[in-house]
Amino acid sequence: MTTIWREKYLLSDSDQPARMEDFRPTETDHEALDPKTFEAIETEALFHAIDFTQTEIGRLSLYRSLARPESTALILQQKQQAVREIESNSQLREALSTYVKTVAPGEKSLKYLLYGEFTGGLATDEPSSRTDKLEFGGYGYRQFQDGTQFAVDLVEKSENVPQPQSEYLRIVFDAIRDFGRSRIYTLMKGPVYSSGGKFKTKQEKPRLHLYSRFHPSLFKMIPLVIFFAAGYGMLFFFENFMPQFNTSYIGYGILALTAPVFPIVLLAMGVSDRDSIIYPLRKQFRESQELAKALEALGLIDELLSFHRYGESIQGDKSMPEILDEKQHRLIISQARNPLLIQHIPDYVPNDIELDQAGRVLIITGPNSGGKTAYCKTIAQIQLLGQIGCYIPASQGKLVPTEHIYYQVPDPGQLSAAMGRFGHELQRTREIFFNSTPRSLVVLDELSEGTTFEEKMTISEYILKGFHKLGASTLLVTHNHELCERLHNDGIGRYLQVEFMPQGPTHRLIDGISKVSHADRVASAIGFSQKDVEAHLEKQGGLS
User: Fold this and answer.
1) What is the pLDDT of residues 289-300, one digit of tens each?
2) pTM of the predicted protein model
3) Buried-most residue among 219, 330, 498, 538 (CB within 10 A)?
4) Distance (Å, rounded) from C-alpha 480 to C-alpha 463?
């Protein structure tokens, strides 16, 4: 059965809260995106561009979606239906926004309760500046009250939200309501009864068993009553039963001696509450799957609302691509624009994307600074946005969720003496090839650099033919038109070139193979053309 829930929840069950860095791909732990691709396609910047969340758990949910995108078509289809329902149903949208906005202020309190370290003392301080720990003064009473109240609000205020129609949202709210029926929720709502390290709810507590009710406060009524009653009783005894001895001063003396002990007793009670009640209880809270799922549900709601707000922020065409459940990757987009560049370039030139059976291997040629790399990043970023259920800056489209997205770029910063540039890049290409599947999207920005032309031609040819037979959607950016001609003669690939006009690049990609180099134009633009070199030498009196 398909489930929207991940194997690992956003709520950490350890003694440290989850961070965004925890979901970032690593060399030993990655899914659709490996670390190099994560960096190459600017995933962090993409996150900031679409982040309109209001909660920390919402930001974690959105970040995880981008870093570890969903590959199951059915889940993405359900997620899209939820976004469409939010867009079309203003009453539901306002209710969801109000719900998230209302509970959001208490979110940190739960975090402080679950992961705080309470150092004692009468004062309840704000968290210290330490980065490795959440340290607080006091014994955790305030954090317990505020954190558990957040959990209660999470459940009770969800009742104000109208019943959604989309299955995805119904599953999300079912998780919150299931938490409201759980034992952990009952303990958080209170009262809590404790005895011998065991905790009982009001319903669980046997009538004849001596379970003490936990009061999350240092100043407890019963000890105060006992202290003052004992003091009054002592004075009453000395003044009324021993008046003949005139010993009332003894009672006052005993009180004067015992009064300083009372704060010590209170502090000892605080330590006892912290170590025997608050810490053990919060461990149960952290390990509760019901609480983890309910908190994650809040994050998913916030993420959906963020998608809606991002869609509203897009200037120009936007769409939600049709999600296809197929065994081989496809990506067909009309009038696609780069999600990052449109923030700074309102008149960004759109291009179509066609990665299907006919154009499964797409080879892009053309001079530098014409938009080849921007086009490739647009493809990867739009695939990623579509694969998390979000809007894309395009007029329409459809896609098959990928199992892997790979983006290879030159990486001169990690060269080894043993392999050199060629060996290093070939190692990366090998890694991509042997891990790719027919449901993979592969972008190769140049191939087999750092070797001779003849070797480059031979190696690039068999690599591209390999990807073609594998069935992965493969893009190659190259200046090697001879390679293009070889592949074209074998009926492999679709070819796009950068369109240039006399005044410069149009940033449109048109059919064909470019055989033109505009290196001198680029060199002139940065002041390093042949004329610039000769002028400098003449100025410096250079030797011929």
Assistant:
1) 999 999 999 999
2) 0.88
3) 498
4) 14
